[in-house]
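Quick one: Cytochrome B from Niveispirillum cyanobacteriorum, structure tokens please.
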Amino acid sequence: MRKILVWDLPTRLFHWLLVICIAGAWITGERDAYDWHMRFGYAVLALVLFRLIWGLVGSETARFTSFVRGPAAIRHHIDELRRPGRLAPHAGHNALGALAVLGLLALVALQAGSGLFTSDGVLTDGPLVEHVSGSFAALARTIHLKNFDLLLILIGLHVAAILSYALFKRLDLVRPMLTGRAALPGNIPAPRIVSLVRAILVAAISASAIWALVRYA
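--- reply ---
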């Protein structure tokens, strides 16, 4: 076994910044600090856009084509989980982890996107409210409130799965997402890691796109 770089720095930064921004949006929303709530929402949108682009042009383990698999792979992984002992080592997300990534991205995008069209009817309007009808804004507000419950449930399942892998399969998924490195046997090749320059360009494009959307909507 040798430790190799599995998760590149941009993917790790995305992961932990998204955790911080979701927590920040939740706390500021509960405390009616809507200016900061909206700033966190814009940051979430930029992060999601970055991850979608990075899933196409990023490092090997970050690309959707490397970890999104069909039903057969999911069934195989579930069967593997049922068997005693450790899981077969692999680099990147497993088949169930891929579903978690896609589900979280979808719900987070819906949460932040619906906030753009949401109005509390009193003090705070999303930047795109004036471009939609009152009924659409009301629908967006309902989605914004209800979808967050679904998001919390999925986050809870995600954390529970990580703990289960650690307790029952002795697989630490947290440390590699912090350090980027995981212990893998020599027969598994190191994934291809792309230049940080590409990540900086993708981050600039994502942040600029969301800034322009909010600024010039």
